[in-house]
Design brief:
MST-like, Four Helix Bundle (Hemerythrin (Met), subunit A), DUF664 domain-containing protein, DinB/YfiT-like, mainly alpha, globular
Length: 172
């Protein structure tokens, strides 16, 4: 695995925000690096979170915010077919039915789509094609980048604990 990128120290706002998001993505990838399917399914009691579930969840939120909301695209096929009403935590629970390589490939492909969608934006003040699902408020690219940095920061903390319980590996 490559070194964790250092976020830009003196760059424009968009570059800085995207470099912090990249740092979190690489950190998450390092937390899953070298693990097999059984290890991605392991949980740290009392939580039901697994690294595989986190990988699928992060793929889903990448697709949701940078695909569905930002560009107005329909959800990727992997997520459109889910029965969210029957299982609101579908992305977490269904991860146990998938192999490690498939989960990490799904996450990697979704990150690449997100990057392409962000590259197509004009700037941080661009409004997303769709409004916020809770209160119908307009959303900027800036808000979505900050939201995703927060999402990854929270889940990287979870991933750190789960990974340490699997094989003792800590840190980036």
């Amino acid at each position: 695995m490559s070194e964790t990128p250092v976020p830009a120290y003196a760059a424009d706002e968009a570059t800085t925000l995207r470099s912090f998001l990249d740092e979190h993505r690489v950190t998450f990838r390092r937390k899953t690096d070298g693990l097999d399917t059984a290890q991605l399914r392991q949980r740290l009691a009392p939580s039901s979170l697994s690294l595989g579930g986190l990988a699928k969840h992060l793929a889903f939120v990448e697709d949701f915010w940078f695909g569905y909301v930002l560009t107005g695209a329909e959800p990727a096929a992997e997520f459109a077919a889910a029965d969210w009403d029957a299982d609101p935590d579908w992305e977490f629970t269904s991860a146990d039915d998938e192999e490690a390589a498939a989960l990490l490939d799904l996450w990697s492909r979704t990150v690449m789509r997100s990057e392409a969608n962000l590259d197509a934006c004009g700037g941080l003040d661009d409004l997303a094609a769709r409004r916020h699902h809770r209160d119908d408020a307009p959303l900027t690219v800036r808000w979505m980048l900050l939201h995703m940095i927060s999402e990854y920061a929270r889940h990287n903390g979870h991933a750190d604990l789960v990974r340490e319980s699997i094989d003792g590996r800590t840190g980036y």
